[in-house]
Amino acid sequence: MYQENGQGFATGKIPFGELEVLKITKFECIWSYNPPNEKTKGAAFYRPVDIPDGFFSLGHYCQSNDDPLRGFVLVAREVGHNCRTITNLPALRKPISYTLIWSTDDFSEETRYGCCYFWLPLPPTGYKATGFVVSNNPDTPSLEEVRCVRDDLTESCQTYRKGVSVGTFFCSSHLSSGDELNIACLKNQDLALQAMPNLEQIHALIKHYGPTVSFHPDERYLPSSVPWFFKSGAMLYRRGDVEGEAIDCTGSNLPNGGENDGEYWIDLPDDDRNSSVKNGDIESAELYVHVKPALGGTFTDIVMWVFCPFNGPVTIKFGMVNIPLSKVGQHVGDWEHFTLRVSNFSGELWSIYFSQHSGGEWVNAYDLEYIEGNKAIVYSSKCGHASFAHPGGYFQGSHVVGLRNDAAWGNNVVDSSVKYHIIAAEYLGEGSVAEPCWLQFMREWGPTIVYNSKFELDKIVSALPIYLRLSVENLFDKLPVELYGEEGPTGPKEKNNWIGDERC
């Protein structure tokens, strides 16, 4: 019988159907390598220890020596004997032997760094290995060291967003692009996702971990709530119509569903309210929260969306010279986000994803800045509103010419642990969260703008010495494409990360 959502959250174990898994964070170091005269500090390989009775290791652990030891591997036991397939095979079995993948025997500095051997378990027919075994002697490891997993309980590790890594590493003496890895991931067959938090637990997580978003002290274009934007004069336009239609404060008169076909878009008011709406209203601002399972249901992603009525123009950095542009890069309706990844085993904040224009980065919890307790700081860059974990000047482009992203602590902040609105959590079931009307608007939150970028860039080039002009013109050709035009951005539900795991 399935439990309700939340009953399995942060209990230390997660049901996977026929398997139950838990994470091990205690390790015995088998081998560590620190390459001489290199910037990286090498890597260390570990064997999990203190595995509870009845659970079995699925592979060993590896991580860079640059970071504190904080990772984990999953161990598993069989619990669903009555759910076995028609083959009636157990979920876990011992390997029949091991294949030596690599060793330090041919490593010229083995006497300095010790010996190490990397073994791939050879599974019985109908089973797959999910991790490697590391030893410091050439003897074949014990068959009791790990277990292999029945085929139908695994996924290919190249199957995006479905497989659950057991936390081990991958190694091979030869692997071509497109080759399938020689280890598998686990498949979470618990369709009820019992380890995911319920609505009450989601609120508790946000109140406990919700970051404070800091906007640059020179930021002109601040966030607002969506209802404030609508009430302040935002207009809905339809292709072929000269005049727009005022939008209800809830967005109830926006066309719902469909696709981004260019038929409708939202724009600023075309009267004296235009400038004030561009500047936003930070008092009304709130974070819009989408909660979803990640990494096969072993983590929860709490995606926090920030809305700004306007995105400001860019500043070009050319060597040591900074050139602010007057229009290029600006657009109406800016949607940005960051994502909190929380462990469903423990309820611990694991990392935060900082979205930065067309990309972004994951930052581990121990590398974040905190304003209070477990509440991190998210720095929103000037004009562009990209998210960063630390203040500073960030650069987008080639190593010579590109766009500036300046992030700093300012007086304009939004505390997401207090000012938030949960807009979606599909795994909880239909009706658990009331999605706002505007979330169903799949078209653009701003008009399409084609910039006269060449005019502004030509002014820059003409001010340079003649001997530099050609090289600078060539460099401008390498600038990000958003310089040359901007389609109105779509809303959260049209973004690539709405479904599935957050991509880096």
TrEMBL record:
Protein name, per record: Vacuolar protein sorting-associated protein 62
InterPro entries assigned: Vps62 (IPR009291)
Native species: Coptis chinensis
PANTHER family: GNK2-HOMOLOGOUS DOMAIN-CONTAINING PROTEIN, VACUOLAR PROTEIN SORTING-ASSOCIATED PROTEIN 62
Domain of life of the organism encoding this protein: Eukaryota
